[in-house]
Amino acid sequence: MLDAGRELALEAGAALTIEHLRLEEVIQRARVPRSSVYRMWPYREGYIDDLLCYLAGAGSYFSDRPVLDPETLTVATRVVSENLELLATPGGRRALLCEVVRITCARNYELTGSAQWRLHMALVATLGSTRSGAARRRIAAALEDSQARSRESLVAILRHLSAVIGLRLRDPAYTLEHVQLSGGLLIQALALRNAQVQAAVTEPDDGGQAGTDEAGPDSAGTDHAAPSGGEAGGYTAGLADAAIVNGLLNQPVPGPGLNGEPAEWTLAALAFLGVLDTFMELDPDFKPASPG
After folding, report:
1. Residue 123 and residue 140: Cα distance in Å, rounded?
2. From CA 275, how far away is CA 86, in angstroms rounded?
3. DSSP secondary structure letters along 5-68
4. Do the Cβ atoms of 180 and 154 come closer than 8 Å?
5. What HEC string does 80-107 produce?
6. Who's near 25: CB < 8 A, 6+ residues apart?
7. Average model confidence (pLDDT) for the chain?
8. Under a CB-based contact definition with an 8 Å cutoff, are residues 132 and 103 in contact?
9. Which residues, 6+ apart, have CB-to-CB distance to 97 below 8 Å?
10. Mind listing the pLDDT tens digit for each residue in 246-264?
11. Looking at the whole model, is its pTM more than 0.90?
12. Cβ–Cβ under 8 Å, residues 33 and 60
C-alpha cells in the first residue's frame, strides 16, 4: 500500500495531491485485500500519515543516498587528476576550483528536475501546513536525516578539495558546514523557482499550448473558465515573466574556463562560486603533493 501510494504521488508530481488520495484508488493500485487494508488503517488519515512518513524516510529515493548527485566527488576528483599541472600556480589552482564548481553544480542542478527530488522538496515545503502533532515530527525527523547525509557528503567533498587544491576558510569563525548550508540552500531555492517556472512554460500533456486562454477540464473533470478582462492581462504578464525567468535560470552565462577563455556556466554554479568565495580563499602556503 505504501509503495502504491508512492507511485501515485510520483505520477501526480506534487506531494499536495497526497492529501486527496482516495484509499480505494491506492487499494486498486496495490492489488491487496480491502479487508486487510481497513484492519491496518481503520481511518484514511492514519494511512496518509504513514504514507508521508514513508515518503520522507524508508520509501524516499534519498533514503540510502544524499540529496545530491552521487557522482559529485568522482567528477571533482577527475577534473583535478586530469589537470595536475595547474596545481603548480595560484592561477592554475583557481582555474581548477572554478572548473570543479562549474561542472558539479551543473550536475546537481540537473538532479533537481527529477520527480523524486521534487516530491522530497514538496514534503519539506508543505510539512508545516499539512500535518500536525506526532506525524509532523516523524516526517520532519525523516527529512532531516536525509538532509544530514547530504550535509556530511558535501562537507567531505569540500574538505577533500581544500586539501587537494589548497583552500582555507577566510575567518576562524567560518566552517565548512556554513559553506555547505548556504551554498546548498541557494541551489535548492533556484531549483524550486525553476520548478514553478517550468510549470508555466511547459506545454500540457494534452498537446495544447501552455498559457492558452481556452477553457478546459482538469484531471478531475472540473471545468475552468479562461481568464478575462483585467485577469487575462495579469495572466499574460505572468507567462511573459515566467519566460524571462526561465531564460535567466537555464540559459548559459559566461564564466571562467580552464584555458583562460570564458566557459558556459549555469546560474546555479556561478551563484555557488560566489558563496564559496565569500567563505574560502586559496591558501598562500599550500604545497601540492608530489606525483605518486
Report:
1. 9
2. 23
3. HHHHHHHHT-GGGGGG--HHHHHHHHT--HHHHHHH-SSHHHHHHHHHHHHHTTTSTTTTS-SS
4. yes
5. HHCCHHHHHCHHHHHHHHHHHHHHHHHH
6. 8
7. 82
8. no
9. 161, 165, 167, 276, 282
10. 999 999 999 999 888 889 9
11. no
12. no
| pLDDT tens profile 51-101 | 888 888 877 777 766 667 778 889 999 999 999 999 999 999 999 999 999
Residue 256 is placed in which grid cell?
571562467
Residue type, 193: R
Domain residue limits, the chain: 72-114+160-203+233-292
5, 52 Cβ separation under 8 angstroms:
no
Please name the residue that has the C-alpha cell 477540464. Answer: 217
Chain Cα centroid distance, residue 246: 16
- Asked if residues 211 and 203 have their Cβ atoms less than 8 Å apart, the reply is no
What are the grid coordinates assigned to 204, written together?
A: 500540457
**Spatial distance between the Cα atoms of 130 and 125, rounded to a whole number of angstroms:** 10
Q: What is the dihedral of CA 171, 172, 177, 180, to 10 degrees?
A: 20
Q: Is 137 left (phi over 0), alpha (psi -120 to 50) or beta?
A: alpha
**Grid coordinates representing 223?**
471545468
Helix (H/G/I), strand (E/B), else coil: 206: coil
Q: Do the Cβ atoms of 66 and 149 come closer than 8 Å?
A: yes
